[in-house]
Amino acid sequence: MAVANQKGGVGKTTTTVNLGASLAELGLRTLLIDLDPQGNASTGLGIENRGLELSMYHVLMHEEPLDNVVEPTDVKNLFVAPASLDLAGAEIELVPAFSREQRLKRAIDAVIDDYDYVLIDCPPSLGLLTVNGLSAATEVLVPIQCEYYALEGLGQLLRNVDLVKRNLNPTLEMSTILCVMFDARTKLAGQVVAEVREHFGEKVLRSVIPRNVRLSEAPSFGQPINTFDPMSRGAIAYRDAAKEVHARVTS
């Protein structure tokens, strides 16, 4: 499942990390692939991404087996393939590369039987890293913030998912939308959720992630919310979202 949204700051990495940790908590072996050169998903799980010997850069550019890059985290059943700053250069280095859009897919295919879920944290742009993420995934999960410009850029993302589906990955579906940063004190947040549900119907999860201070504090401690503050509203909401995602997959 690729977690994608071209808009920055919409809680994409927060969602990847905390959804992954919540799936792992359900006893499901979960691999989180960090494709964002900033490496926030890696550091958010306590993996120091400076000076890494091997990272996703080596998987994409030097065909390093994914198994050699995967690191365990402090959360049982949760593993991460970390990003390093070198990934920023991979966007340019991939341009002349042979079969450049399918490199991640080939790497994942070699380990897919070892995991129940693979979550891919895509960068907030539509370069070759995101195209690799979409080419490797079967589903796309889109976090949408409950704010005024929520749906801005979504049309473009849907067009790009469609392009990748037609040209590179016929099985790809935009299957899931998760409303995040919900502020119950504002009328606008409720209106945005209603509008998103009206547009996308069953694709929108019933669970809504609240705006929660503990969620924004957790990454600086290198922990997902369900170990940092397991009883916080954010932790409960991501657990509910993970159960919903898993119920959809198994139904």
Structure description:
The structure is a single chain. With 251 residues, the chain is of the alpha/beta class. The chain has helices at 12-25, 40-43, 56-62, 87-93, 103-109, 128-136, 154-167, 187-200, 213-217, 225-228, 233-250; strands at 2-3, 30-34, 71-72, 78-81, 117-121, 139-145, 173-182, 204-210. β7, α8 and β8 (204-210) form a beta-alpha-beta unit. The model has no long low-confidence stretch (mean pLDDT 92).
Produce the secondary structure layout.
Elements lengths: L1 E2 L8 H14 L4 E5 L5 H4 L12 H7 L8 E2 L5 E4 L5 H7 L9 H7 L7 E5 L6 H9 L2 E7 L8 H14 L5 E10 L4 H14 L3 E7 L2 H5 L7 H4 L4 H18 L1
Parallel strand pairs: 1-5, 1-6, 2-4, 2-5, 6-7, 7-8
Antiparallel strand pairs: 3-4
Rg, Å, rounded: 17 Å
Please tell me the overall pLDDT: 92
Distance between the termini: 17 Å
Largest sheet: 8 strands, mixed
- Give the % helix: 40-55%
Number of strands: 8
Provide the succession of SSEs: EHEHHEEHHEHEHEHEHHH
* Number of DSSP helical runs: 11
Quaternary structure classification: single chain
Biggest sheet: strand arrangement: 3-4-2-5-1-6-7-8
Low-confidence sequence ranges:
none
Supply the helix-strand structural class: alpha/beta
Q: What fraction of the residues are assigned to beta strands by DSSP?
A: 15-25%
Report the principal-axis shape. globular
